[in-house]
Amino acid sequence: MSTTSIMITGVGGQGTLLAVRVLGNMALRKGYDVKVSEVHGMSQRGGSVVTYLRYGDRVYSPIIEKGEADVILAFEQLEALRCLPFVKPGGRIIVNDQKIDPMPVITGAAAYPEGIIDRLKERAEVTVVPAIRIAEEVGNARTANVVLLGTYAKNSGISKEEWTEVLKETVPAKFIDVNIQAFEKGYQL
After folding, report:
1. Which among 16, 55, 133, 154 has most CB atoms closer than 10 A?
2. Beta strands in 97-172 (DSSP E)
3. From its phi and psi, is residue 31 left (phi > 0), alpha (psi between -120 and 50) or beta?
């Protein structure tokens, strides 16, 4: 198997690290060599968070170069745009429809960019997910990350049951039920 490269991006507090743990645990379960690397700014304060995950028969580095990502899993639109140069031509972007104003927008020094989804579609296959709305429907807005994982999982070639098992092994016990509901909703999109 060739190496699969996935970038997970968002802002601090959106659950990107849990998402990469679930993806990594699934790849390990399937017997792949897995490499993960975090690259983030002020994640505690809502800054950019980017995580690289690569898996395959043999992976030598976790780093994803520009034009190499098979998938970008973006928890916020502007973060998806920032990572756009990394997706392969014809690659896949799964993006939450959420917009979170970065500090330059909050202070009035810049405007939030318009037309982000259209720009993403120029380079990749794009799936826009109303992850926050769906997560709120299942009772916990913090499960938006798992809604996005469900959307990714649908076309992963791995059964929904296996994904559910990995979620149960990875998510804290008191949050399993709501996360499985969020996963199911994302999977159904």
Report:
1. 16
2. 125-129
3. left
Structural domain boundaries enclosing 69: 4-137
77 lies in some domain: yes
Q: Which residues pair with 94 in a beta bridge?
A: 73, 127
Placement of tokens 């896949």 in the chain = 92
Q: What is the pLDDT of residue 1?
A: 67
Residue 85: both structure tokens together: 């140069």
| Residue 187 forms part of a structural domain | no
Please report whether residue 45 resides in a domain. Answer: yes
- Residue 187 CA to residue 189 CA, distance in Å, equals 6
Question: How far is the C-alpha of 163 from the C-alpha of 150, rounded, in Å?
Answer: 8
Per-residue pLDDT tens over the stretch 31-54: 999 999 977 555 555 678 899 999
The residues, any chain, with a CB within 8 Å of residue 51's CB and separated by 6 or more, are 7, 8, 9, 16, 17, 20, 36, 37, 38, 39, 40
Least confident of 11-25, 115-129, 147-161: 11-25
Q: How far is residue 66's CA from residue 46's CA, in Å, rounded to a whole number?
A: 24
Q: Residue 159's pLDDT band (boundaries 50, 70, 90)?
A: very high
The enclosing domain of 79 has a CATH number of 3.40.920.10
* Cα distances (angstroms) measured from residue 73 to each of 8, 77, 103, 139, 161: 5, 10, 22, 22, 21
Q: Which amino acid is at 95?
A: V
Q: How far apart are CA 161 and CA 152, in angstroms?
A: 14
